[in-house]
Amino acid sequence: MPVTTGHSLTDLNLGELYAAHRLSLVRLAVLLVDDRASAEDVVQDAFAGLASSGTRLRDPDKALAYLRRAVVNRARSALRRRRTARGYAPPRSIEAARPDERAVLAEEHREILAALDRLAPRQREVVVLRYWSGLSESEISETLGISRGAVKSTASRALDHLETIMGGEQA
Amino acid sequence: MSTQIEDRLTAALHARAELVQPEDLGHHIPPQPAPTPLWRRPAVVALVAAAAVVAVAVPVVLRSDHSGHQHPQPVDHAPTPIPKIKHRLTGDVDGDGKPDQIRVSGHTLTVTLAADPSHPLTKSDDKDLAGLAGLGDVGTPGLGILTVEDSAGKVGVNWGIVALRHGKLRTMAQVGSDSASGSLASYPGIVFSWVSSGGVPMSGALDPMQDGQRRRAVKVTRFLPRHGDLASSYVGRWCWDVVTQKVPAPCPQGVTDAFDPGTHGSLPNLARTRGGDYGDSWASGSTDLRIAKARPHVKSLFKQLYNVVGTIDGQQVSGPAGYADPSLWQSFIDLGHGVRGLATNDVSKSTWNLLAVTSNGLVPLAADDPSNGANGANYLHPGTMAAPVEGKLHRSDTWLGPDDQVFTRVENGDGAGHYRVYDWQVSDSSSTTLTPVDLGEVCMDDFQATYGTCS
User: Fold this and answer.
1) B349 to A103: CB separation less than 8 angstroms, yes or no
2) pTM of structure
């Protein structure tokens, strides 16, 4: 990541961060909030937060970690607020279904993603950060603000829960 | 153990993430870093000392800085303006004709009355306040104070109304008077609120389909004092040129600024206002149906088949409903050629399964793909999805019309609100295949609830 250590953020390196990491952060957000439009808003908000905290964030090397943490927190907030925002949306005929790109995925992927929907938010975050972002336990711990032990136990429970939901397929 | 599920999980997450490609992302620009506070800028300090003229300029710039909460927003070619928010205002809050000082800081609103400057009045909120939206007529002797929550990191915020009553600052409620009325709030691109030049709090609901356009139609609500609170009252549709007008205004004669979908022509009733519900069962007249596990019972939710079973017009029926505990749409649908159908929501596939009601019982229907691909059933997703058309994903919606017909629309890339619309019908009364009957290009505006053959 082409960011100079020891300087506060500038237009230039914020732009570089944006160009380099926006797509991967939107993908992370999609896995947490399900629809792309919300995911883009979450990521734009996260960058906005980084921009407005530029004078406080002294170590640009930590910018990506900050952004990842901001995306996870904002995604969680977005899910909570979704009901409120829906109150302003145009009426839907059948149900307020979210845009769902998953319908074009292979059935085996859809099944496990549907099972993922049934996990508690924290379990889902741990699973996504571990199996999609590829973060270590300590990085997940830093991102979510929980202990490494909690990361480990949450991941273990999430997998157990997924196995239960998926039934006897693993037998 | 978990290895197999971990592998599946990893593959599924990567497949889902890969659906988002760079060209799919909106054309946002990176937010700009917050400017360094002016007092920290040596150049500004030097300029202030050097030139008296700067003494005029600096307060202007400072106010702009302090009006604060310049939360960077996604930028489009004509973004919705954001209401100006201030931290300090001057106005007559107690109705004595003298200007009082109003300010917000953190959770606290402070009013210093001109009549009693040594005893400022305060009111604390449980949320951080971003600032003050203005002062308005709220039915008290003095002006009411319109506060704005801190919007950092939120989609939008609601406004608060505070007025001086019996010597204390008190919060007033927004009372809805009809279903068409909005509320005082700021949701960028969705709701815009302001105070009219006559001091009336106003709110406008924006058409999301016009997002980014310069001229927009706005459904306007005003708020007037009633029984100690503010009652909302729908005013009508106003026009707003977001580049030249600070706030919406009544439309000039013959102008609507609304998206014009054109005439209905020979289109069926495509309104998207149909209500209804899903359930585990449905009983109406001579119809009595329920969802039941089919045999064999298996442990995996996603391998367990469920059936629709029961009676229709006294005839025993049974047909596959789908996997993962599906639910039944609680009315018949019209599949054309006099054929009635049932819809079940198959959670495992995120699509509907449609069953034709025939003299031989319930017959599952396979759907042809309107784009000549292999995924016709994908279009039967109830609600919004992305449908593959010639290798690219397009937004697609499936819904039930007022006449119980199933329609699917697919954005055709000709601009906002332009769709290819299909009516799902069986090809004849004995068919087991659903065919998407192409209704051609249709323009639809969900916000205004209008549609037509495109003007």
Assistant:
1) yes
2) 0.55
